[in-house]
Amino acid sequence: MTPTGASAPGKALLCGEYAVLEGAAAVVAAVDRRVRVAWTDDAGAMPPEVEATLALAQTALGPVGQSLRLDASDLHQDRIKLGLGSSAAAAAATAAAVFASHGADLADPDTLRRVFTSAFEGHASIAPEGSGVDVAASTFGGFLRFERRGDRVETRALPRPDELHIRLVWTGHAARTSELVAKVKALRRNDSGRYRSCMERLAELSARFAAAFELGNAPNVVAEAASYCAAMGSLGEAAGAPILEARLRRAAELAAEFSGSAKPCGAGGGDVGIAFFVDPEAASRFELACKGEGLHPIDVSWGASGVRAC
Q: What is the DSSP string of 162-182?
């Protein structure tokens, strides 16, 4: 049967925000809220990342001769983006749809790498400030260690620590990643020493988080996430950017009250926070406490599969 489209999972960045842009390691997970694209004869408007990726993939493989209809509703709440990488997932699903339509096996590692390259380049042509970590999660799925050095990208699948319990909460407010990144870039121009100090600290902590995660050391993952949250707050103060804004700060305080930790999941400024616990009952109590303070737990399954034809 000829595929009618494809889907790709959203992502949650566990650790590595901002530092990943300077070549530091990041840990990212795919979540089971998916973006879907479907072939259509209606030549309607498509999101820019879909148009760009579609053009690149068809240049590489040959035309399919259709447009794509996008459904990203799983990654929205009350018509607001949740900050789970919907545009990256749209690019990954678009590239996958083209490859699947040409008969490629999306389970083949070489095919997945080519899907990633098309999606990465298509997404970067619209959002050049990104690292590509979100595109990698949406393409390959699972838990990944991601590192980018110039044009070279390295990914490695990671096992999830057995004792680690992860929760997501939505602040109820969207954030503009581009504005936050612009302020951080301004800090780099205007005070390179302070910028370098912040980034070195973030890179060190991200490496420690990745090592603890890979070793299955859940208590150390919790501890390093707390330190990373504080370092993100310091970067925000230095850049005059609300990276650790009031709602995300409150989520971190609540997680600490239940022997866990929480941090912004992504650039900060709103959107989504991510929390880590060793005790599953503490994780549940954290979610209940969040509901009482206007923070909204997001129900996801972790380590979702990557791109799929449909």
A: TT-EEEEEE-SS---HHHHHH
Report the SS3 class of residue 213. helix
- The pLDDT tens digits of the residues spanning 59-96 come to 999 998 778 999 999 988 877 788 899 999 999 999 99
Tell me which amino acid residue 164 is.
L
> In this prediction, what percent of the chain has a pLDDT beyond 70?
99
Find the helix or strand (DSSP H, E) in which 138 lies: helix 133-140
> For residue 274, what is the enclosing H or E element?
strand 272-277
The confidence score (pLDDT) of residue 1 equals: 55
Pick left, alpha or beta for residue 194 (phi over 0 → left; psi -120 to 50 → alpha; otherwise beta).
Answer: alpha
Structure tokens at 196: 């370098």
Closest CA to 195 of 181, 179, 178, 209: 181
The answer regarding whether domain 165-298 maps to CATH 3.30.70.890 reads yes
Q: What is the helix, strand, coil percentage profile of the chain, to 5? A: 45, 25, 30
Alpha carbons 195 and 199: distance in angstroms, whole number: 6
Across the beta sheet with 165-170, the strand order is 261-264, 272-277, 165-170, 296-298
Tokens linked to 35: 């973006």
Query: What's the mean pLDDT in 216-222?
Result: 98
pLDDT digits 0-9 by tens, 274-308: 999 999 999 999 999 999 999 999 999 999 999 99
Measured distance between the N- and C-terminal CA atoms of the chain, rounded to whole angstroms: 10
**Confidence at residue 250, expressed as pLDDT on a 0 to 100 scale:** 97
Predicted TM-score (pTM) of the model is: 0.95
Token representation of residue 151 = 């044009």
5-161+302-309 CATH choice from 3.30.230.10, 3.40.50.2300, 3.40.50.300, 3.40.1800.10: 3.30.230.10
User: Token pair 């840990």 is at which residue?
Assistant: 27
Evaluate whether 146 touches 133 at the Cβ level (below 8 Å): yes
Higher-scoring residue by pLDDT: 79, 31: 31
